[in-house]
Amino acid sequence: MMMPEHLVAGWDIGGAHVKACLLQDGQVLDAAQWACPLWQGTERLAGVLQLARQRWPALGSAHHAVTMTGEMVDLFASREQGVQRIAAELTRSLVDASTAAPRGSLQFFAGDAGWCAPIDVGAHWNAIASANWLATARHCARRIGTRAGDGVLVDIGSTTTDLIAFRNGRVLTHCRTDAQRLASAELVYHGVVRTPLCALAQRIAWRGVPHNVMNEFFATTADVYRLTGELAPAHDQYPSADNAAKDLPATRRRLARMIGHDACEAPDEDWLDFARAWREVQVAELGGQLRRVMDAHGLSDRVTVVCAGCGDFLVPDVVDSAMGATRQAVVTVYGADVADLADGAGAAAVAVRAWVQVCAPSVAVATLLDQDRR
Question: Is the pTM value of this prediction over 0.85?
Answer without folding.
Answer: yes
